[in-house]
Amino acid sequence: MAKSLLETPWAVAIDPARRDGRVVAESTEEEHRAKRVAMPGSLDPGFAETLRAAGIERLYSHQRQALKAAASSNLVITSGTASGKSLAFNLPVLDGIARDPKRRALYLYPTKALAQDQARKLGELRPPGLREAIYDGDTPRQERPAIRRRNNLVLTNPDMLHVGLLPHHKSWGDFLANLGWVVVDEAHTYRGVFGSHVANVLRRLRRVARAYGAEPRFLLASATIANPVELAERLVGAPFELIDDDGAPRAEREIAIWNPPLIDRASGTRRSPLSEAAELLADLVAHDVRTICFLKSRRGIELIQRFARDNLTARGKPELAERIAPYRGGYTSQQRREIEARLAAGELLAVVATDALELGIDIGELDAAICVTFPGTVASLRQMWGRAGRRRRGLAVYVAGQDALDQFFCRHPEEFIGRPVEAAILDHANEQIAARHLVAAAYELPLSEADDEIFGPSWRQRAERLVTAGELRSAGGRLLPRSSEFVASKIPLRSASADSVAVIERDSGEMLGLVEAERAFTTIHPGAIYLHLGRSYEVEQLDVEGRRAVVSRFDGDWYTRPKKETEIYIERERQQRQVAGVELHFGEVSVTEQVIAFQRVSISDQEPIDTVALELPEQHFVTQALWYVLPERLSGKLPPEVLLGALHATEHGQIAALPLIAMCDRWDIGGLSTNVHFQTGRATIFVYDGHPGGVGLTLRGYERFERLLDDAERLLAECPCESGCPSCVQSPKCGNLNEPLHKAGALELMALMSASRNDRGPDEAE
Description:
Layout: H1 11-19, E1 23-29, E2 36-38, H2 45-53, E3 58-60, H3 61-69, E4 75-78, H4 85-99, E5 104-108, H5 112-125, E6 132-134, H6 144-150, E7 153-156, H7 158-165, H8 173-177, E8 179-184, H9 192-211, E9 217-222, H10 228-236, E10 241-243, E11 253-258, E12 262-264, E13 269-270, H11 273-286, E14 291-294, H12 298-314, H13 318-321, E15 324-327, H14 333-344, E16 350-353, E17 368-372, H15 378-385, E18 394-399, H16 404-411, H17 413-417, H18 431-444, H19 452-455, H20 459-468, E19 472-475, E20 478-481, E21 500-505, E22 511-516, H21 520-523, E23 529-532, E24 535-543, E25 548-553, E26 558-579, E27 582-602, E28 608-613, E29 619-629, H22 632-635, H23 640-657, E30 669-674, E31 684-689, H24 697-703, H25 705-718, H26 743-755
Parallel strand pairs: 4-9, 4-10, 5-7, 5-8, 6-7, 8-9, 11-18, 14-16, 14-17, 15-16, 17-18, 21-25
Antiparallel strand pairs: 1-11, 2-3, 12-13, 19-20, 21-22, 23-24, 24-25, 26-27, 27-28, 27-29, 29-31, 30-31
Helix pairs in contact: 3-4, 9-18, 11-12, 18-20, 23-25, 23-26, 25-26
């Protein structure tokens, strides 16, 4: 390391953990010097003067490259956090508008907050000819017609493009006819189900723009991922050029891998990562270190913020306790804007956030970034760490959780720190997703042979099935929707449902926040403890039909976790092979889930208190899955009383290992194991995409099954616990509350499968 942590303002917080072994590894990201180049003389004189007035005299090398390449190509620009990606795509757009203010640009952001942040920066820059405006769900209806007519740069999100622009394109005729550029920022977020939907929305945009005579240039900006060109081309359906020479400076950054201490060696139980992170956060705030703390769990960020505030209050520093705020989805837009403004102004010393703040909102200079538990991908982790030390030396900490993947990385920190970023996975041709967007496209403009270039030739077979299903009709050689119903409004783009449930505080009648309808049964069921802005509430009533949940203030010392039952029906097998002694399959399955109870768990010792039964309706969805059927010669080697626990533990291990192969986390994946499945008639393990339709996560597992088997066996075998613990076979998302599990049986089963590879035929080789 270039310098000791003892020389930094955070040394007092980190050094005790180095001495007692909680910091299991340290590393340093070296400082990168800027690669600056001259401002090109070809810029519009007025725009060049605007840049100089803003203090921009020279460009980073990647910004100059982007300006040149955008004249003839679609671009995808990848670089680190705070590297000037926005200016890289703004240069060609703002220069073009300065030359011809009639030209139009559409900027797409995955969140409203990012669009508002960029609009503010454009307003401060004020280049010649620019008339920017935000057009999203918060835009007053009376202002929308003027924006469509007058503004030449519109900032929005894919959801608004999907339901507010494309189906009403006649109102946008002049804008679309002059559309010169489409900017897609934070493109790496468009993966999985969301990305598969957005890829179809962007094809619909190209199609509608073409009808008005426009062929806009697409400019995509992304964090560093393994497959930026492939992602861009799958998103848009057109060729792209890559700009990845990051010429921006980066300060030195210290990295610490932090593993909470064991509190019970026999069970493998470790101290809660939330408690560890809260203490670290309180220490950093107490020493005036501006910090952001990330955790994917909404409940978790509320708990960390509460624990940190309690810690500072107990130290006699209540004024500092008030300078920590939580930030997550589900807050109202006004609540989020207030937190962002307080952080940027320096009023807050720390924020505890979900990945809603992982993206590029400008919240000022931060000293430290803490990531609590593995966020699912290395790309996300580096985005989070990149929030710290942009211009001066920073600290990045990874606080491991108890689950198998976190503990694997703590045992092999060199694999973790040096791990390459993953490839983003999406499937724009997913049958369930693409078919719905085809009907939406027909609503916008009749489908015809001219659509082959946009949708690819396979759209015709899909359209024929939609005609047979009664959703499309033929008229004069073209295809139109059977109904005049507004189709797009029934196609949610994100993994969440199209609608949400409002959470209402009983005494005040205030709406605290929103919960996606698909998460309601697991998050705000009657009796659930709901956390919001650091306060706890107990759910008294869930009105599914009325889309509202009534809650009241809660001061108890427990939280809740749901118990659910899952059933799987095999709909269609797409691929099958013999591997590792089992029949391995991939295809479509129907998943039925029902929350049947919830468990109350003590916050202080994490022990279950009791289980309360619930009566909630079933939820159904069709998705992709891999499954494998064990022959009697393998399953029969285990005693009957061990088999189900062994299958369940094997399922958990493989779900934990799948993120090592696919760009996802365990929350994107579901599983089911049974000693006799009613369709296969034998012991069967299912691993399925956790979102309707599926997007290829389990296909990656099917294709690389032998590695999945090896990784899962290694995760379990290396864990020092005796009979299974949260670091190997127990899962925080298990619908059966981790019962039954048999670690030794799982290891024996996977060893039998591995040994069976020697007996396979040549057709089984991968």
